[in-house]
Design a protein that fits this description.
The protein is α/β, with parallel strands linked by helices. It has helices spanning about 5-10, 15-30, 45-50, 110-120, 155-165, 185-200, 240-245, and strands spanning about 40-45, 60-65, 80-85, 95-100, 120-135, 165-175, 205-215. Helices cover about 30% and strands about 20% of the residues.
């Protein structure tokens, strides 16, 4: 499945995509309540998770990378979706309080540059929530789902990326423990498998869900200053002092 907007729409319109949205949305609801009075944006394809924030948020935006394409969102009313260059977002510095990154990091050619741009537009002490396919998960090996496209990540890789972009992780979660099988009996069993997998901390979840806070300071690195090395000094007596000692 190519990671474009039409394939993503088709996936989330299927029973398998609906259960994926439900299971990931459960973790999202636990972390972000309703976003009342906040500016919220999603970079990538985050529209399946934005609907619950539209009524209470100050503004709610869906920013879709040019490589994926864009769709009209929401279905009724004023359009709040835009086609953007993900590394040059058309937003002022520090303008977003909550930022969701979905179906974007795994497709980014330069993930460090993407996260640096997200740091720029996130408000001081603002939060981002990253949904990324897990390297150990079964979903990353299923080409029939969008989580099987692009670059999957391990937990240490995500931690390093966030730290380099000056984000401090405050929550690590996982979702999609059920295998990506679209058969009806597996769809019905998915919520039960999800609860068991989360309770036991099983290692084969399909996605990482990481919440991080923007650091408002930049650490100053210690630089080693090169100094010229002086030759070692050898104490000697001056000739006149030497003659004076012999005379005495």
């Amino acid at each position: 499945m190519p990671l474009d907007v039409h394939s993503l729409q088709s996936f989330y319109g299927s029973p398998l995509g609906a259960i994926a949205r439900r299971l990931i949305g459960r973790v999202l609801r636990e972390r972000w309540d309703n976003g009342a009075g906040l500016s919220i944006a999603a970079v990538g394809y985050g529209t399946p998770y934005l609907d619950r924030f539209r009524d209470g948020a100050k503004r709610c935006l869906a920013l879709m990378p040019a490589e994926q394409g864009v769709v009209i969102w929401p279905g009724g009313g004023r359009c709040s979706a835009a086609l953007v260059e993900a590394q040059m977002l058309p937003l002022p510095d520090g303008s977003i309080d909550r930022l969701l990154l979905a179906h974007a990091l795994e497709a980014a050619d330069r993930p460090d540059a993407l996260l640096e741009e997200l740091w720029r537009v996130t408000a001081p002490e603002g939060r981002i929530l990253v949904i990324a396919p897990s390297r150990r998960g079964v979903w990353a090996r299923a080409d029939s789902t969008p989580y099987g496209q692009g670059q999957p990540y391990s937990k240490p890789q995500l931690r390093d990326l966030l730290h380099r972009a000056e984000f401090s992780p405050v929550f690590w979660g996982e979702a999609l423990y059920a295998p990506p099988v679209a058969r009806p009996f597996m769809i019905r069993a998915a919520p039960t498998i999800e609860r068991v997998g989360a309770a036991l901390g099983l290692p084969f979840a399909g996605v990482h869900i990481v919440e991080a806070i923007k650091q408002v300071y930049r650490p100053v690195g210690v630089r080693a200053v090169a100094r010229a090395r002086l030759p070692p000094l050898k104490p000697v007596l001056a000739p006149s002092a030497h003659r004076q000692c012999r005379f005495e």
